[in-house]
Amino acid sequence: MEPPRKLHVGVVGLGRMGKRHALNFFHNVPRAILTAVCSIDDVEREWATHTLAPSGVAVYENYDDMLRHPGMDAVCISTTTSVHAPQTIAAIAAGKHVLCEKPLATSTDVSQTVVDAATRRPDLKVMCGFSRRFDASYRDAYAKVRSGIIGKACVMRCQTGDVLDPTGFFVNYAAQSGGIFVDCAIHDVDLALWFFEGAKVRSVSAIGITAIEPDLLQYNDRDNVMGMIEFEDGRIASVYTSRMMIAGQEDSTEIIGTEGKLTINMIPVANHVQIYKPGGIHHELPQNYWERFHQAFTTEAVEFTDCCLDDTQVPVELASAVAAVEIASALQEAMITGNKVVFDDKGRRISSSSGQAQRRTKL
Amino acid sequence: MEPPRKLHVGVVGLGRMGKRHALNFFHNVPRAILTAVCSIDDVEREWATHTLAPSGVAVYENYDDMLRHPGMDAVCISTTTSVHAPQTIAAIAAGKHVLCEKPLATSTDVSQTVVDAATRRPDLKVMCGFSRRFDASYRDAYAKVRSGIIGKACVMRCQTGDVLDPTGFFVNYAAQSGGIFVDCAIHDVDLALWFFEGAKVRSVSAIGITAIEPDLLQYNDRDNVMGMIEFEDGRIASVYTSRMMIAGQEDSTEIIGTEGKLTINMIPVANHVQIYKPGGIHHELPQNYWERFHQAFTTEAVEFTDCCLDDTQVPVELASAVAAVEIASALQEAMITGNKVVFDDKGRRISSSSGQAQRRTKL
Amino acid sequence: MEPPRKLHVGVVGLGRMGKRHALNFFHNVPRAILTAVCSIDDVEREWATHTLAPSGVAVYENYDDMLRHPGMDAVCISTTTSVHAPQTIAAIAAGKHVLCEKPLATSTDVSQTVVDAATRRPDLKVMCGFSRRFDASYRDAYAKVRSGIIGKACVMRCQTGDVLDPTGFFVNYAAQSGGIFVDCAIHDVDLALWFFEGAKVRSVSAIGITAIEPDLLQYNDRDNVMGMIEFEDGRIASVYTSRMMIAGQEDSTEIIGTEGKLTINMIPVANHVQIYKPGGIHHELPQNYWERFHQAFTTEAVEFTDCCLDDTQVPVELASAVAAVEIASALQEAMITGNKVVFDDKGRRISSSSGQAQRRTKL
Amino acid sequence: MEPPRKLHVGVVGLGRMGKRHALNFFHNVPRAILTAVCSIDDVEREWATHTLAPSGVAVYENYDDMLRHPGMDAVCISTTTSVHAPQTIAAIAAGKHVLCEKPLATSTDVSQTVVDAATRRPDLKVMCGFSRRFDASYRDAYAKVRSGIIGKACVMRCQTGDVLDPTGFFVNYAAQSGGIFVDCAIHDVDLALWFFEGAKVRSVSAIGITAIEPDLLQYNDRDNVMGMIEFEDGRIASVYTSRMMIAGQEDSTEIIGTEGKLTINMIPVANHVQIYKPGGIHHELPQNYWERFHQAFTTEAVEFTDCCLDDTQVPVELASAVAAVEIASALQEAMITGNKVVFDDKGRRISSSSGQAQRRTKL
């Protein structure tokens, strides 16, 4: 009897998330074999040589070399955003399935090039990893909305609250992240597109401040931002995104319908423990999005693997990932200019309202 | 030994809230005596004749007549918004202390006339009743913010969620309410002014939909709206206001600072009971804002009475009530026009951004 | 038109609870007038002279004198437990309605003398104040159980958790309190009798320790105790009572039925505020039973007043208060002796099981 | 380079839990290989032939045959309780590591035979699987208690609430389960032994009823039981165990110390979703202990595997599993007889108190 075929996966980028993706495919995906990893960073490769190579995982410095690794079926891309699109396109060209970290790119146009490349190879699975779509709670909420228990879902309120990183890592990262809306709020935008079934954007507005990291202003970025989105079909959504959460990771979502409402994670909790001390009761929170969503990343990897091996449709449509970039980058622009960004009913941008430019304020 | 002096109070307007104010002064304010009530509505007066008159409360049809009631010290105004200002001014002219329901008026200019009248009579106490300022939880949060435990408070997220009234009462009420921002969200605007210590508004944006009551469009109103407010000092706030809450009254507030965050009522509860039935655990919610805030209304009446009798400062400054109307009415306008409304650093409105007018959408 | 008749009330005992009762009748009971107070303690009387006398409240040192106060209709007894019964009986003899703090006495026999006295004067209202029966959450739960939503209620789990009093006040108080079961757990016993509709006790068992106050052993008392109660009809209940709660007052109850379960106050909260600080989310608790139940005490006083004025039945039957003492004192005995206390089907005690006496343990 | 050695595991018993153990070792334990399974039940073996055999897992009918499977290192025993001990002893005799489901046996004596067998083979890892010790929340609580944040832990309150199984499966199962204390409450007893560091039992008392399944009486079992445990060092614990939970799986624990308190799972939740519908807010619960604890079972399998491969100490001492059976079976006896079961300070049972035998009551 033949053992079942497994998916041979390479992971490029071994930074914080890359390590997690690599270990995830290594340990937690029964139908996948981590066959190779790649990083241009010496320290990251050293980690891989120490941790993964003894188990037979090949370690590459050069991405094109890894793409030629014998027998590799698929690539997981967790490098910096600016190379997501070219690396995805190169992998497609090399005939590999691709799981690419969000966002596809910081601009709509570049994101679209990925879709174009993928369209030419319908035999390959290409998926942008919006991890929340694989989280058990979001899926439960989604199923409930689809079942109609809240009537017509028409309003969303979203929050992506990253725990404060006192090292200020994200300041320099802002140079190429596309900004906080494109880097963080894109998760909420994706949730809106998911729950609102691909509704088309009509307008976006946004404001923001630098409450703790004024240096972000040099990159046209902020640390606390708010945005509002109108969709063509009359639904609306608001997002609040912050890099200043003190207590832990706070990602919460409200989906409000004509006959009810669903919330996900309104009061974050790390586990089932509560601590009673003088004055009150305390509970801990996940300290980063990995602690909150690590199971979702496993599910994502497992399902991507299944799609590749079983030739089924990926659960997140690639076109939706482009729409998410379009909305998120428009929010970033609206925040920088102080103007509303408006789209016509074909989804094309029309001249934005000529409001006064946002004055930069340091608290 | 002489019995202590009590405040003789008249209540005008005996609708839903008026009845509550009257009974509140009648039962729950030890230093006040409900001496008279007034309503132009026959049914309301009949209620008063039946309920209050047997205990010696005078019942009037004409407001000016009530103002001449012998020995009356103060008036509580809970009529329809359009007469709040003239009735307050008339009471001041008659030398009465005034507790006026929010808002003072639907326009900034009219609201200001109340302040002008009050300024000329510094011997009288004139207060606009923003009930949340008297709620124990909001006060606890306020004290904690002042104590510095969240660092600098710089972001607020507010929700005023009125339980769905299937009678559609609020549709006709919209004709003179000033709209959902002026009628409901003004509570959140007031909270922002309170917690942000009177910060001056710089800009407001808003969007809205009619998810359940398309007839609101004829009054330029909506049933679900969102707004964003920028303040001169760089703080920001968002509001979500709805008349469509299914589960009950949902008024929640988040105050986010550089060193922590406070929330008030993130998951509403009616009491301490939880119900375990097949499938899960259930708890009930207050079914309207009175159930949620009735204690606050009592505190408000008690403290207003104390201020009048003891000649101390009222806890809500009247000027703040004007600022709240200014911001709330600007939000309403921003929603209707689709344009951001911008203020200069003197707080004067400058021409709003000439965006495309909001297209009216019916879901 | 004549003003409505009011109930003239005297309060005896002005300790911690007595002051609260006096102020409650003074401020919060519209149909009652606080007409007199009485205390044998100089400091307490001085407080009354300063606080209440200026409003016309008479202050007595001698209880019999107060009973002769002209026009007094009713007495509220909040003295030390050992005089509850004689003072109640004296008030009945003087023709007064009586609201007596729990417990009626520390023994069943003495408790019964109160019932006997009351039975001879059916024109008078005599009620033992079990405050939880007047709490909105307990009443809501009670109504839900009666409505049948949990099927047959057959198991109760109760907790009375008093916040730790570091002054050790309760050590000396133990000399005459009847012990922690009679002083504190009696609330839970009363709840069981209420929810289980006066079910008759069949047996009780109990254990206990002195975790923080070994000096309690000299009074045969403990600071943390547990008990189990079997009723004749096959229902069961457990109680946990502690004087060592660190975070605040923790009184919680579970009522478990064949088709569902109700809980009251499983996670105590002081208000609607949550505090986000590094590491997690915190909320405060009521710091004593008054903070938790003050509304219930007002409702109790209001309803007692109504019963007296309107000649209706008191909401807590006096016989139930005797049954509560019987069970609570049997629990205390079971804990001290280490033996189960058993009752026959007439409710008469039969010789307890001759287990080994409890060894005294100091942690 | 050699691939790392893996642990070859066989699973015996493929009932509800057995299937889960088999799939767990198959999918979720990177360092283990599921090499064989065994069941005397035709349907269970058919399932294995269909599900596991295609991947190379051998399927046995006879346990001794499986013990001779070439290269098998360890056995996971998830058969019915009555064969736990002999199968464990046989596996030890065959030189296999053993992970045995709880309890070791329904009697202390038989349980001890397992310890004796294991003691003779110190080279083998023999562990009784108390799953809660591997749950992240219990571990977090345990670490916090050890760190001293609640002072001296001296009181525990435990609840094991199995969701009602309307098929009545557990009635027949009661014939050999050892009863509800031995089958279910043993988890809570184990938690007490864990958190109280192996404290020795001094006495146990228990009561119980058949609220929904009177047929349990024929097996001397009940469906709702309560017990109290005294330990030699003066700590105390209570357990409530039910097979009647309507809303879902409810396993909660309170650990109360002299300086604070910890709770685990006071209000059970299935995930982060809350549902707002008319009347209130609802959330779902895990529908069985697997949904609540499946991660714990994975951790258990992973750690057991690590211990075998790395020759480290198993995280649950075998002697503790015997002590748990001793206490749990004494609780069952105390419930049946109505007598307290008392132990001397050597841990030997002394004659139990000669109380009246429990009368059997059907609600």
UniProtKB/TrEMBL annotation, chains A, B, C, D:
Similarity remark: Belongs to the Gfo/Idh/MocA family.
GO BP terms in the entry: NADPH regeneration
SUPFAM superfamilies (UniProt xref): Glyceraldehyde-3-phosphate dehydrogenase-like, C-terminal domain (SSF55347), NAD(P)-binding Rossmann-fold domains (SSF51735)
Organism of this sequence: Clonostachys solani
Domain Gfo/Idh/MocA-like oxidoreductase N-terminal per the UniProt entry, residue ranges: 8-124
GO cellular component: cytoplasm
Keyword Endoplasmic reticulum: no
Protein name listed in UniProt: Uncharacterized protein
Keywords: Oxidoreductase
Entry-linked PANTHER family: BINDING ROSSMANN FOLD OXIDOREDUCTASE, PUTATIVE (AFU_ORTHOLOGUE AFUA_2G10240)-RELATED, NAD(P)-BINDING ROSSMANN-FOLD SUPERFAMILY PROTEIN-RELATED
Pfam family, one: GFO_IDH_MocA
Signal peptide: none
MF terms (GO), sorted A to Z: nucleotide binding; oxidoreductase activity
Domain GFO/IDH/MocA-like oxidoreductase, residue spans: 138-262
